[in-house]
Amino acid sequence: MATQLTLTALPDIPLVEPGDDLATIILDAYARADLMPADGDVLVIAQKIVSKVENRYAYLSTIEPGPAALALADRTRTEPRLAELILRESREVLRQRPGVVIVEHQLGYVHANAGIDRSNIVSDDDHDPRVLLLPADPDASARSLRDTLRERYRVDIAVIINDSAGRAWRNGVIGFAIGCAGIEPLRDMIGQPDLFGRALERTQIAIADELAAAGSLLMGQASEATPVVLARGVRFSASDIGNAPLIRARHEDLFR
């Protein structure tokens, strides 16, 4: 078992534009850090940089709010066009109050405002600001990047795409995984013995979420400009299952 974990924020990641080659950008950052990709590396990558490269921008001026969005906007004091976009990105509104809309995203996880973000985004039109949506398929985004890096350097790595969210019963946001490739995201330890030989009954470890949160410590939430973190020393099992095991089934969810 590994007894040491190192986290390195890869330096000088530039502001990206739609269509940029994210794999090359990351490899250049490895070089600036005087590192080379290696077997067992885990790259934790901020959702925002992936969404920007994939051109997941939306202009609120192009959105026409419908009746449901107008009603939601009135109840939550949200801009009607933003309310419409939240509904389009969501399966269901779970909780709402003025200033807060908690939804089940189309991808299955629970998120405020469907993950739609305005921070750290440069608009190409000051009179028509844009917002940024989550990647359409974060698992596919992670898989594509992993495949490219493996092809170029013949190394077996894992990729986690993270975002920030709040949690029930706790204040503050924390990083969590919204997509992954090359890593089993949930380690099931049920049945394994504890220190005294008793079998564990419920223990499952959200490996991808723990790494996503660790990466967020170096990424920050404001102007840090460090959206890619390299984790080394992680003990994990390789898997192509993606992020789905981390999402609790609806019938087991006590908060709905």
Q: What labels would you give this structure?
A:
CofE-like fold, 12 strands, 256 residues, 60s Ribosomal Protein L30, Chain: A, alpha+beta
How would you describe what is shown here?
The chain has 256 residues and is α+β, with helices and mostly antiparallel strands. It folds into 2 domains: 164 residues, 60s Ribosomal Protein L30, Chain: A (2-Layer Sandwich); 76 residues, Alpha-Beta Complex (CofE-like fold), CATH 3.90.1660. Helix content is 26%, strand content 25%.
The third-level CATH topology of the largest domain is 60s Ribosomal Protein L30, Chain: A
Quick one: overall form?
Answer: globular
Please, how many domains? 2
The main sheet orders its strands as 1-12-2-8-9
Question: What is the helix/strand order?
Answer: EHEHEHHEEEEHEEEEHE
- The low-pLDDT segments are none
Approximately how much beta-strand content do the residues carry? Answer: 25-35%
Q: In the CATH classification, which architecture of the largest domain applies?
A: 2-Layer Sandwich
Roughly how much helix do the residues carry, as a percent range?
25-40%
Outline of the structure:
With 256 residues, this protein is α+β, with helices and mostly antiparallel strands. The protein has six helices and twelve strands.
Q: Secondary-structure blueprint of this entry?
A:
Layout: E1 6-9, H1 22-32, E2 42-46, H2 47-53, E3 57-59, H3 67-76, H4 80-88, E4 90-97, E5 100-105, E6 110-112, E7 130-132, H5 138-153, E8 158-167, E9 170-181, E10 186-188, E11 204-206, H6 207-219, E12 228-232
Parallel strand pairs: 2-8
Antiparallel strand pairs: 1-12, 2-12, 3-7, 4-5, 5-6, 8-9, 10-11
Helix pairs in contact: 3-4
